[in-house]
Design brief:
Elements lengths: L7 E2 L11 H6 L2 H11 L6 H10 L4 H7 L5 H5 L2 E2 L7 E2 L14 H35 L11 H10 L9 H14 L16 H10 L6 H12 L7 H31 L5 E5 L9 E7 L2 H11 L2 H9 L5 E6 H11 L3 E3 L4 H5 L6 E4 L8 H5 L5 E4 L10 E2 L7 H14 L16 E5 L3 H7 L5 H9 L4 E5 L11 H12 L2 E5 L1 H9 L13 H10 L4 E3 L6 H15 L8 E5 L5 H12 L4 E3 L9 H10 L1 H4 L3 E3 L3 H19 L2
Parallel strand pairs: 5-6, 5-8, 6-7, 8-9, 9-10, 12-13, 12-15, 13-14, 15-16, 16-17
Antiparallel strand pairs: 1-10, 2-3, 4-11
Length: about 650
C-alpha cells in the first residue's frame, strides 16, 4: 500500500501574526469607516475590511497605499529594464531614447507585447495541463480522472479529424490529446479551433498577417521580439501581440475550457450561494483558490470520502464544507454548485472569518501574502503546483497519476486542524446570496430550444439590443466590485444582455445580479425575455479561461447570420482588470472584432502613437479597437453607442 503523501514546508513557517501596531494605534473609527466605504462596493466584505483595519492585519488595499505615489514613468510604460545597459527612462526633451536607441513608441510596444505573451502563456499552459491529463487517461496512466462528457469528447475529436468509430473511449482520448498538443508547436502552422470563427473573420486575420500558427510558437516569437536588438517597429510589434493573443483565446484557453468540460462535465444552470457567508461556523472549512479545476475536482471527491467525513465528526465538526475562491471557485460553482466565497480581493478576507482550516491553492491570482495573513489565525495555506511555491506554506506535489491520494492527504490535514481553531475569533456576520450559474454555450443553446435563432430574433427585433462580455479581476485603483456591478446594472437597464466570467461574474453574483429576480432591474425587453426563460439578465459563463466560451458564442452568432464577428451588436469590457492575462484577453477580443472598453488605463500613455493605434488604428485592421473609460456609466454610453451603430449597419 502506497504511503500517505507528506507536505513539505516551503521556506520558514510564519509563527507570529505580524500586526501593524503603529497603524492600528492611529486608526480612529471615522477613518476606519471612510476607508471601508472607499475600498469596496461589496457589502458582504465591508465588515471584514473593518476587522482587518481594527486589528492591523495587512491587506491588498494597505499595500496599494504603501506604494503611492506610483512611478510616473512605469505607469506610462516608458521605463525599460530589458537589458543590463539599463534601466532606461524616456524623459523628454533630453532623454528621448534608451541606451540602445529605443524610443518611447518602441519601449511601450515591447512592454505591452511582453504582457500579452505572459498572459497568453499563463492561460495556455493551464490548457496544456488539462490536455496532458486527457492524454494520461488515454494512455492508461491516469485513473483518478474519467471522461464525464463522452458526447463532447467525440464532437471535439471529430472537429480535430479523429475517426472515432473504430476507437474505444481511451483511444479517442489519446488521439485527441495528441492532436491538441500539436497545437502548441510549429508543425501544423494553424490552430484547429480558429475554424469555428466566421470565414470573413478568418480572412481578416489572414490579410493582417495575424492568424495564429501555434501557441508556443507565438509566445516564443513574442519573447524573441522583445529581446534588445530585434523588434524596432512599434506597429508590427503590436500586431504580433494580436496574433499571440489569438493563440490564447482560440487555442490554449479554448482547449482548457473544452477539455475541462470533457473531463469534469459541461456546465448547465444550477443554483448555489456566494460571498464570505458561505463559510460555516460548525464545519471544517476548506477554500479552493486558483485556476486549475484538476486539483479542486479531486478535493471534492476526497471530501466526500466516508473516512474523511467520519474524521471530521471525530474532531468535533458537523462535516466538511468546501468553498471556492476566484476562478477555481468559478469552475466548482458552475459544475458542482459548490458555494463561492468571493473574487480576487476576497481571498485575504476569507481567512479573517477565523473559521478556515485550510486554503488550498494551485496557481494564478494568488497573493504571496496569504501565509502572513494566515499567521494571525490557525489557517494552513497549502500549495500544490511546482510553478507556484510560496514561502510559509505546506506544499503537496499534485500529479494526475496520484491525484486522489494527495487530495485525501490535504483534506485530512485540514480536518485535523479544526481543533486548533479559536472559537472567539470566528467572525461570519453576513448571509450568502443565491445565484444561478453554469451557462455554457451548450446550455444556452439547449435553453433556446437547440438553436441560437430565438436569441438572434430577439436581437433583430430590438427586444434585446445586444450583448456584452464583462470580464476581468479586481484592481485597487478601482473600488472593489464597483466597476463590474455598476456597468452590469446600467447595461441591463438598457436591454443589453451581459455574459460574464471570472471575478466580474462573482461581483455580479454578490450583488444579486445572477438571480432570475434581477430581471426586475432590466429594461422591458430584456426583462420579458429573462422572465419567460426563468434566467438572470447577467449570465455566468465560467472562469477567466472560459472567455473562450464568449468567443465561441460570438462565432456561433456570426456563423448563423453569415457575418464576421465585428459586425455583430456585441462588445467587451474589463472594468477592473489588473493582470497580464487580462491584457491577452482584451487583445483577443479586439483581434476577433469585438470593441472592448477598459476601466484601467494600460501602461501605454508614454506613446501617443501606441495609444492612437490601439484606440483608432486597429479599426482599419481588425474592425475593432480599445477604449479606456474609468467611469462605468460613461463606459456604458460608449458600449451602447457602439451596439446601436452595429445594429444600424445590419439594418436592424
Amino acid at each position: 500500500m502506497a504511503e500517505e503523501p507528506e507536505p513539505t514546508l516551503i521556506g520558514e513557517r510564519i509563527e507570529v501574526c505580524e500586526l501593524d501596531r503603529a497603524r492600528l494605534s492611529l486608526m480612529n473609527p471615522a477613518l476606519v469607516e471612510e476607508k471601508r466605504e472607499a475600498r469596496t462596493a461589496d457589502e458582504s466584505a465591508k465588515p471584514f475590511i473593518e476587522l482587518t483595519m481594527k486589528e492591523g492585519i495587512e491587506t491588498v488595499w494597505d499595500r496599494f497605499e504603501m506604494q503611492q505615489p506610483e512611478c510616473k514613468y512605469c505607469a506610462a510604460g516608458i521605463s525599460c529594464a530589458r537589458c543590463a545597459m539599463g534601466p532606461c527612462r524616456i524623459i523628454p526633451p533630453h532623454r528621448v531614447r534608451g541606451v540602445c536607441g529605443a524610443d518611447a513608441d518602441l519601449i511601450v510596444a515591447r512592454n505591452l507585447l511582453d504582457q500579452i505573451a505572459t498572459g497568453a502563456a499563463a492561460h495556455s499552459d493551464h490548457g496544456r495541463e488539462i490536455v496532458l491529463t486527457l492524454l494520461g487517461i488515454g494512455n492508461g496512466k491516469v485513473n483518478d480522472y474519467v471522461v464525464t462528457d463522452r458526447d463532447k469528447l467525440h464532437r471535439i475529436a471529430a472537429e480535430f479529424g479523429v475517426e472515432t468509430n473504430a476507437l474505444n473511449e481511451r483511444e479517442v482520448a489519446r488521439e485527441l490529446a495528441l492532436r491538441m498538443l500539436e497545437e502548441y508547436g510549429t508543425v501544423k502552422d494553424a490552430l484547429q479551433f480558429t475554424g469555428r470563427a466566421p470565414p470573413a473573420t478568418r480572412q481578416i486575420w489572414e490579410t493582417a498577417g495575424i492568424s495564429p500558427r501555434g501557441i508556443d510558437r507565438e509566445v516564443v516569437d513574442a519573447m524573441h521580439r522583445v529581446q534588445m536588438g530585434v523588434a524596432a517597429d512599434y506597429a508590427s510589434t503590436l500586431l504580433h501581440g494580436l496574433r499571440t493573443s489569438l493563440s490564447d483565446g482560440w487555442g490554449g484557453s479554448m482547449m482548457a475550457t473544452e477539455i475541462s468540460d470533457v473531463l469534469f462535465g459541461t456546465p448547465s444552470p444550477n443554483e448555489s450561494l456566494v460571498n464570505l457567508g458561505v463559510v460555516k461556523r460548525e464545519c471544517v472549512n476548506i477554500s479552493l483558490h486558483g485556476h486549475n479545476p484538476m486539483l479542486s475536482e479531486m478535493i471534492v471527491k476526497a471530501s466526500a470520502d466516508p473516512e474523511m467525513t467520519a474524521l471530521a465528526r471525530k474532531v468535533g465538526a458537523e462535516g466538511i464544507n468546501l468553498v471556492g475562491l476566484c476562478c477555481t471557485g468559478n469552475e466548482l460553482l458552475m459544475r458542482k454548485g459548490i458555494p463561492n466565497a468571493g473574487n480576487h480581493f476576497n481571498q485575504e478576507l476569507a481567512i479573517t472569518t477565523g473559521a478556515l482550516e485550510a486554503m488550498v491553492v494551485d496557481y494564478q491570482c494568488i497573493f504571496p501574502s496569504l501565509p502572513r495573513t494566515a499567521s494571525c489565525y490557525h489557517t494552513h495555506i497549502i500549495t500544490t503546483s511546482p510553478k507556484a511555491k510560496i514561502p510559509g506554506t505546506y506544499y503537496f506535489e499534485f500529479e494526475p497519476e496520484t491525484a486522489f491520494r494527495t487530495a485525501k492527504a490535504i483534506v485530512k490535514m485540514a480536518v485535523e486542524n479544526f481543533p486548533n481553531r479559536n472559537p472567539d475569533r470566528v467572525f461570519i456576520p453576513v448571509e450568502p446570496v443565491k445565484v444561478v450559474t453554469g451557462f455554457s454555450v451548450e446550455a444556452m443553446r439547449a435553453a433556446l430550444g437547440g438553436s441560437f435563432r430565438p436569441l438572434i430574433d430577439q436581437i433583430a427585433s430590438g427586444t434585446i439590443r445586444g450583448a456584452v462580455g464583462i470580464v476581468g479581476c479586481n484592481n485597487p485603483k478601482v473600488k472593489h466590485d464597483f466597476g463590474h456591478v455598476t456597468l452590469s446594472k446600467e447595461l441591463i437597464r438598457r436591454d443589453i444582455l451581459c455574459v460574464e466570467t471570472g471575478c466580474a461574474a462573482i461581483a455580479s453574483g454578490k450583488a444579486g445580479l445572477l438571480q432570475p429576480s434581477a430581471a426586475s432591474l432590466a429594461g422591458p425587453g430584456l426583462r420579458g425575455v429573462c422572465e419567460s426563460l426563468g434566467i438572470p439578465p447577467v449570465l455566468h459563463m465560467g472562469s477567466c479561461v472560459d472567455n473562450a466560451r464568449i468567443l465561441h458564442l460570438a462565432a456561433e452568432l456570426g456563423n448563423a447570420l453569415n457575418v464576421p464577428i465585428h459586425r455583430l451588436p456585441i462588445a467587451g469590457a474589463a472594468p477592473e482588470w489588473y493582470s497580464q492575462k487580462a491584457v491577452s484577453i482584451g487583445a483577443y477580443f479586439v483581434a476577433s472584432g469585438v470593441f472592448t472598453v477598459l476601466g484601467v488605463m494600460p501602461k501605454i500613455t508614454g506613446s501617443p502613437s501606441v495609444v492612437s493605434l490601439l484606440t483608432e488604428g486597429l479599426r482599419g485592421v481588425v474592425h475593432a479597437s480599445f477604449a479606456v473609460e474609468p467611469d462605468p456609466l460613461r463606459a456604458a454610453d460608449l458600449i451602447a453607442g457602439q451596439i446601436e451603430r452595429k445594429r444600424a449597419d445590419l439594418g436592424i
